[in-house]
């Protein structure tokens, strides 16, 4: 089966079934990652922000032990006769998060439209790391829109990119690396040294996909504004990959994102992203549609490319 058809099948499974409800492999992987972190980066005390004992070399070792055996297992299983194609589809399905993105965004949209700010704050807190308890309606919508645009790149497009490039082992390598970045890639006393490798590897793996996503957002929205925001604002962001993605996405939607936000009790100064109207429930909904349309565009290109080069 061609990589294009395998990609369509994986995306279709995600759209139909969403994430597994009872047990997701990434939950088990998270437990493994926590065990490795306790082994290689044991903090000096029980304080949550205490400095970890692990150095960069310990982080590299832990990353290798967590990611490479499972990547090799995915490669081996994908080569099995008769069932290898099923392994490929399952790997992509389990790595994608498009339906999950929609399911997390919809309650926020509904709460804002119902005027239930408390519920909107609660639900947006599920998908962002900033403090949400004091957000106003615009702040909730801004946080949710940013999250959809950024996570659309991380949890959807980048997974699809690495699947197309390297099949099951590629998407497993990417998804596990991205998960470790989310768990270890913090610039705080505990993870600054130990999590360095996880953060840098994730940056490298997202380097090309993030720019393809920014271009996709631009093509499907206000192209001129998206490209201008990408060029002028994308490189001012603290993340080399999230910046272009969110700047182009905000420009494509014609919405103003960015601005300072509270993280773990400290105000972080964040530059503006995009131009246009303030964020609201509609901007969240339009960001979800932008991601979904982008995926359809990628699949169409894959299918047409497969026919042209068949």
Helix content: 55-70%
Unreliable residue runs = none
Largest sheet: 2 strands, parallel
Q: SSE order in H/E notation? A: HHHHHHHHHHEEEEH
Rg: 20 Å
Question: Describe it for me?
Answer:
By secondary structure, this protein is mainly α. It has one domain (3-308). The protein is built from 11 helices and 4 strands; from the N terminus they run ααααααααααββββα. The protein has helices at 3-17, 25-40, 56-78, 84-95, 98-113, 117-124, 137-184, 196-220, 223-233, 242-253, 281-308, and strands spanning 255-256, 261-263, 266-268, 277-278. Helix 2 runs antiparallel to helix 3, helix 5 runs antiparallel to helix 11 (281-308) and helix 7 runs antiparallel to helix 10 (242-253). It comes from Pseudomonas turukhanskensis.
Provide keyphrases for this structure.
two-stranded antiparallel sheet, 3% strand, globular, two-stranded parallel ribbon, 310 residues, single chain, mainly alpha
Summarize the structure.
This protein has eleven helices and four strands. The chain is mainly alpha-helical and 310 residues long. The protein has a two-stranded parallel ribbon with strand order 1-4. Strands 2-3 form a two-stranded antiparallel sheet.
Helices and strands in order:
Blueprint: H1 3-17, H2 25-40, H3 56-78, H4 84-95, H5 98-113, H6 117-124, H7 137-184, H8 196-220, H9 223-233, H10 242-253, E1 255-256, E2 261-263, E3 266-268, E4 277-278, H11 281-308
Helix pairs in contact: 1-4, 1-11, 2-3, 2-7, 3-7, 4-7, 5-6, 5-7, 5-11, 6-7, 7-8, 7-10, 7-11, 8-9, 8-10, 8-11, 9-10
């Amino acid at each position: 089966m061609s990589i294009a058809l395998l990609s369509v099948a994986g995306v279709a499974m995600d759209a139909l079934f969403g994430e597994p409800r009872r047990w997701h492999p990434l939950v088990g992987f998270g437990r493994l990652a926590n065990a490795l972190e306790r082994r290689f980066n044991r903090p000096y005390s029980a304080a949550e922000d205490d400095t970890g004992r692990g150095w960069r070399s310990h982080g590299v070792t832990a990353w290798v032990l967590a990611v490479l055996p499972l990547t090799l297992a995915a490669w081996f299983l994908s080569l099995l006769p008769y069932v290898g194609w099923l392994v490929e589809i399952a790997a992509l399905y389990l790595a994608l998060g498009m339906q999950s993105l929609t399911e997390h965004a919809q309650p926020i949209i509904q709460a804002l439209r119902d005027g239930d700010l408390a519920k909107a704050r609660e639900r947006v807190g599920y998908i962002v790391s900033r403090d949400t308890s004091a957000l106003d309606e615009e702040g909730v919508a801004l946080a949710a829109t940013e999250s959809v645009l950024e996570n659309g790149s991380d949890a959807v497009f980048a997974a699809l990119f690495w699947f197309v490039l390297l099949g099951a082992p590629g998407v497993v390598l990417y998804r596990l690396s991205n998960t470790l970045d989310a768990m270890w890639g913090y610039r705080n006393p505990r993870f600054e040294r130990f999590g360095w490798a996880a953060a840098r590897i994730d940056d490298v793996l997202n380097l090309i996909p993030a720019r393809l996503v920014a271009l996709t957002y631009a093509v499907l929205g206000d192209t001129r504004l998206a490209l201008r925001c990408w060029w002028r604002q994308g490189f001012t962001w603290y993340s080399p990959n999230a910046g272009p993605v969110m700047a182009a996405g905000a420009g494509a939607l014609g919405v103003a994102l960015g601005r300072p936000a509270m993280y773990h009790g400290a105000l972080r100064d964040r530059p503006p992203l995009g131009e246009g109207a303030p964020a609201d429930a509609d901007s969240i909904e339009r960001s979800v549609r932008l991601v979904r349309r982008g995926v359809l565009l990628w699949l169409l290109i894959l299918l047409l490319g497969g026919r042209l080069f068949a």
